[in-house]
Design brief:
The protein is built from 23 helices and 17 strands. The protein is of the alpha/beta class. Helix 7 links the parallel strand 9 and strand 10. Helix 14 runs antiparallel to helix 15, helix 16 packs antiparallel against helix 21 and helix 18 packs across helix 19. Bound molecules: 2-amino-2-deoxy-6-O-phosphono-alpha-D-glucopyranose. The site of 2-amino-2-deoxy-6-O-phosphono-alpha-D-glucopyranose has 14 residues, from loops.
């Protein structure tokens, strides 16, 4: 491999950065195509190790395209999948066997006998022999040419949870709590996620001749950087790639955010001191040395590798004042703009007042999590606020909620009215109870059940919005079709989704839009809806309202913004934070990340305090995506 530039000195596994997951998937698919063509010429099969999860989906789509449009044949390909949930039959909607069929195998010409996936239903006493046979089979075909990998939040590859040794082989393992939490929405509740899986071992994976690990979106940034730049350790099984002679990471912009060359570029080469980079460096230095910005001295700059920043933009004292003022100007209690005030240095313009504010929530809970306090302020300050739940969120609702509702309904029938008067309602309740009974723990939700779950979430959303003073007529439900037709980790948006958003914008003609998902994995609900919004805004460019509309992004369950990235900081009083927390309590099924939002809001306030700004209880943070 060619020598790597000094900026990558901390990266112990070669890492390729791509502008998007699509670009990375295309590059990888081209490599696979070349590999397959070479092997076919020399009369060898191509042995691919495959992964599941949302990450490889764009890569599989590209392989399918190559098959359809460029006649790439998979007749000569043998595949081994990394893992399978233990306890799930191959036709279960969440089994990896079914995932692979739906995402790849059903759309290419691979012979069925060339596909290998560990069995999720092998009896317990045969697991060992099954795993050994899997290893033997990989060996018998000459080993894996190229192993594709994703990465879990615990740093696992396959299902090699922390503690998996470097030499581990295919075996049954117990899933980590974090992994089960991450899979909770796939299974409509953590309680339904299997506890065990069969996975290739780290040793099995490292034996492949070539490895490519893909990662998308900011939520993968921290663990990806740890795997690439941190110590090789059983605590992060992806770090073992550092020991492999031919392993690479393919990552997108979001997932690269924590790499030294992106996060602290001045430590590994000459930095271009743009305003954003300068802000990042000064804030980083202040937080690292625990000194407020205005107390940083020239020695601090020199000791932290920032002497060239000083010589370019110093003296230090002037630089400190500039950055301090910029940070100070991000703070506003008037997210919709302060009427009749000088707005030269305010994040949002004063006029027009009141503003039409459109708050987009990819799933019904996202906006309250990310900006419940700001929503509260916008309403209080007299703006025309609309909260739009872009999808129904029905896939998040556990069966137990539907059961509770249907059982109550059935009982109400006999308790308050005569059975004849209650006939239809009782029938409906019994249908739901029967569906729940028949589909069992892991079955797919038929439309009637999904509809009820969506209604339950609607009720929770209305309730949560009321707590913040938003009446039902200001809460809208878009029910985007991609969500209704899809499943987590494999959603696919269509022109109907885009049309729904374009007409929403045309109807409301907003002055301000709040949204999230710009930094999310592009295949997540927030990632998909953000990209749809971008396209819808591009399509609306000629409209009058579009020229005067500002776009703000908030973070919900994604990685929080760092202090230097914040363009608008809306302080929350202790009372407002309490109101937000109370409004979140209206939701029955929030993830641990969503539940910890108050801590994130407090952390923003602590950072601002540490930088020498005013001390608040909590802050909701926003980034400007576009301004009029
Ligand atoms: C599961 C799979 C891994 C995958 C991970 C991340 O744990 N066993 O192979 O890498 O999920 O999934 P996603 O790509 O959806 O983020």
């Amino acid at each position: 491999m060619p020598p790597r530039p000094p900026s990558e000195v901390h990266e112990k596994t070669p890492t390729v950065l791509f502008p998007s997951s699509t670009a990375a998937a295309q590059a990888l698919a081209q490599e696979v195509k070349t590999l397959m063509e070479e092997n076919t010429r020399t009369g060898r099969p191509t042995v691919l190790g495959l992964a599941t999860g949302s990450t490889p989906v764009p890569f599989y789509r590209e392989l399918i395209r190559l098959h359809r449009e460029e006649k790439l044949s998979f007749q000569n390909v043998v595949t081994f999948n990394l893992d399978e949930y233990y306890g799930l039959p191959a036709d279960h909607p969440e089994s990896y066997a079914r995932f692979m069929r739906e995402q790849l195998f059903d759309h290419i010409d691979i012979p069925a006998e060339n596909i290998n996936i560990p069995s999720g239903t092998i009896p317990s006493d045969q697991v060992f022999a099954h795993c050994k046979a899997y290893e033997d089979k990989i060996h018998a075909v000459g080993g894996i040419d190229l192993q594709i990998l994703g990465i879990g939040r615990t740093g696992h590859i396959g299902f090699n949870e922390p503690g998996s040794s470097r030499d581990s082989l295919t075996r049954r393992i117990t899933l980590d709590r974090v992994t089960r939490q991450d899979a909770a929405s796939d299974f409509r509740g953590e309680q339904n996620v299997p506890h065990f899986a069969i996975t290739m071992g780290v040793g099995t994976i490292l034996r492949a001749r070539q490895l490519v690990l893909m990662a998308w979106g900011e939520n993968k940034a921290a663990i990806t950087a740890r795997a690439i730049e941190g110590a090789v350790s059983e605590a992060v099984s992806a770090s073992f790639l550092q020991d492999h002679p031919n392993a690479r990471f393919f990552i997108d912009t979001g997932a690269s955010r924590e790499l030294t060359r992106i996060k602290l570029p001045w430590l590994v080469g000459p930095a271009s001191w743009t305003p954003a980079e300068t802000r990042r460096a000064v804030v980083w230095q202040a937080l690292k040395t625990s000194r407020p910005v205005l107390k940083l001295i020239d020695e601090d700059y020199n000791e932290h590798g920032l002497s060239d920043l000083l010589s370019e933009q110093g003296p230090g004292y002037q630089l400190n004042i500039r950055i301090f003022n910029r940070l100070q100007h991000t703070i506003t209690g008037w997210p919709g703009g302060k009427p009749d005030a000088d707005d030269t240095f305010r994040p949002e313009r004063a006029k027009p007042y009141p503003k039409r504010c459109l708050i987009l929530s990819p799933e019904p809970q996202d906006a309250i999590v990310g900006m419940g306090g700001t929503l509260d302020r916008l309403i209080e300050q007299g703006h025309d606020v609309r909260l739009i739940a872009l999808t129904s969120g029905s896939l998040r609702v556990p069966d137990s909620e539907a059961d509770k509702f249907a059982s109550t309904l059935a009982e109400l029938g006999s308790a308050v009215v005569t059975p004849a008067e209650w006939k239809e309602q009782t029938q409906y309740a019994n249908t739901i109870l029967r569906i729940l009974d028949e589909k069992g723990e892991f079955g797919e939700d038929p439309p009637a059940l999904r509809q009820l779950k969506a209604l339950i979430l609607r009720g929770e959303l209305r309730d949560a919005a009321h707590t913040l003073g938003l009446t039902s007529d200001r809460v809208h439900l878009l029910d985007l079709p991609f969500y209704e037709k899809g499943r987590y980790r494999r959603f696919h948006s269509t022109p109907d989704d885009l049309a729904a958003l374009v007409s929403l914008l045309a109807q409301h003609k907003p002055h301000q839009i709040y949204c999230t998902g710009d930094a999310a994995d592009p295949s997540s609900v927030a990632g998909i809806t953000f990209r749809l919004l971008e396209t819808a805004l591009r399509q609306s460019e000629g409209e009058d309202w579009a020229a005067t509309c500002s776009l703000w992004s908030y973070r919900g369950k994604e990685k929080p913004l760092e202090a230097h990235e914040i363009d608008m900081a809306v302080p929350l009083s202790p009372l407002q934070l309490e109101r937000k927390t109370r409004s979140l309590a209206r939701y029955n099924s929030l993830s641990t990340l969503e539940l910890s939002i108050a801590d994130q809001n407090r952390q923003h306030a602590k950072d601002y305090d540490a930088l020498g700004l005013a001390e608040y209880e909590a802050i909701e943070a926003f980034q400007r995506r576009s301004r009029p």
